[in-house]
């Protein structure tokens, strides 16, 4: 096995030869025909004969204990197989890749928590029976109002410890110009198109779970832990996942419930959460309060920056939104304080939603930078340019690749930034006030363990195998492109097998590390295959030239099938973090631009166009990368204008736990969006040279919209989202 830890920059030479011409090209999705024809099996589909249906009885109080359950009416219904409650293996909340939360007790941590199961012959019977289960409670006062809960500064939650460098307060006191603003962001739901669903069945002591999950290697261990069995008895399948956005990185209650129910009734069982259940049983993004302080001289040179926040979590989960994560390496400044305080609240768990930290942290820092630029009389891009660091200003580590200045320049040129009116509210078209805004985008890049196996068969076809998942991001396609580029094969000669924990372990889809890690592992496996091919050609590996299923060396050409014949070549590649990963500061970067029109009469905001330019290392597939970026920009637009999960502070219920009232951006809201790339291969990131793209698009895009609203109207809003009621009272006269 070729095992490369990132102790130093590394790049497989065959990736650069580009003889097959696959890598980076906008190739259509490998699995596209299966998806559009309905043949791709998702978690709830193609169940075995005899599969029963599971419905979940959920808590009707926000805090307290279950004192009794009366299931007689449900059990009497025709078609009901079993009502299950009190099983000590039943989890009380959403799990993650390391552990499950509290198990099997009678405590209620939040409204909507799963507390009993109904298994029936049909979904309709299961759901009706669940409504007939009567639950008795000892209801207790809950902490439901974020404005009233206690804030803890001394806590151990989360993976981002406080950062204190220099004396921030003293530096701010001495600064010639100081900006001090507080921003708030609400709860956000990771509302994927495919429901959170699981199909589970037992064959003797072996459990198979087909689940809508992003990180199936972690899910396997979590499910085994919850059930109290060895993880070798669990197999998790997720060949197709219809979106996740972080909400499917952990194991939901429904997966363990389905496994328990299948064991108890002796039949396969499947379950899909309703949309309202998803709001309660899947983690959401924490609401935050963020104080952003910046001190600089009159030329805009920043000497002090503080990003101090409060994020929220219940008593049953260990995650804490890393709000200032994107701020750490973004701008220069000697005195620095970045901290996220904790407030405990009796609501469903908060967790990692697309771009944890940066997605909402960029609202504060990028809107504050825009306001500071106005205060200084500087163009917002010029202020950022004057504070572009040469090394990571927090850790002192060197950057690997950082093309942020180029993103600013190229984005400004393409967008027509020079036509922006610097005086807010000065451009009108009838009742519409027109404005432009911009913001920086940043998402940290991570190197993680990943393995892949590649088999070059007797027919000259290649098969790549890894337990990586594809949540709509293009994993199938970029794995095929990587192997095709390395071995000189067209996409049609490559089979991609993923989404099965019996395959070599990978990173899974999360953190924007999946593509670079999985493709790097596949490329390393191909390097070993090239070594074997060189032996069979009696040539040096570096002299091989591969294209269209044939290999050439020393003036001789041979079809791959002739070289392989009855001796297929199997190789395994592994990549992992190392000294280079630890010694460098790695991130993907970008510049976001937006133009909006705001009605001076109603306060309605229409986003007219958006454009972004991004530095993501090697572009593995231009089309799938652009799709991810554009999707992120759309989500940022929705964060800026509509998305807001509202909690009733009297009982801990969501007022709007569905798409009828929780407003995501729809087609009518989304303008023409352009996404462009500045490519510089990052050999320090991973052997594929690719940095994360999936979460970068959401960072900064919402702030660009909010900054454009200010440029159009002269009104600054610090409480997201910017709804028309917040604008109306401050709009200039018509």
Automatic annotation (TrEMBL):
Protein EC: 1.17.1.4
Q: Compositionally biased, Polar residues: which spans?
A: 578-588
**Pfam families noted in UniProt:** Ald_Xan_dh_C, MoCoBD_1, MoCoBD_2
User: Sorted alphabetically, which InterPro entries does this protein's record hold?
Assistant: Ald_Oxase/Xan_DH_a/b, Ald_Oxase/Xan_DH_a/b_sf, Ald_Oxase/xanthine_DH-like, AldOxase/xan_DH_MoCoBD1, AldOxase/xan_DH_MoCoBD2, AldOxase/xan_DH_Mopterin-bd_sf
**What molecular function terms (GO) are annotated for this protein?**
iron ion binding; xanthine dehydrogenase activity
Q: Any idea which UniProt keywords this protein has?
A: Molybdenum, Oxidoreductase
Recorded hits in Gene3D superfamilies, A to Z, give: Aldehyde oxidase/xanthine dehydrogenase, a/b hammerhead, Aldehyde oxidase/xanthine dehydrogenase, molybdopterin binding domain
Q: Aldehyde oxidase/xanthine dehydrogenase a/b hammerhead domain spans which residues?
A: 37-141
- According to its UniProt record, this protein's enzyme class is oxidoreductase
Q: Where is this region: Disordered?
A: 565-588
Instruction: Identify this protein by name.
Output: Xanthine dehydrogenase molybdenum-binding subunit
Organism per entry: Sphingomonas dokdonensis
Name of encoding gene: xdhA_2
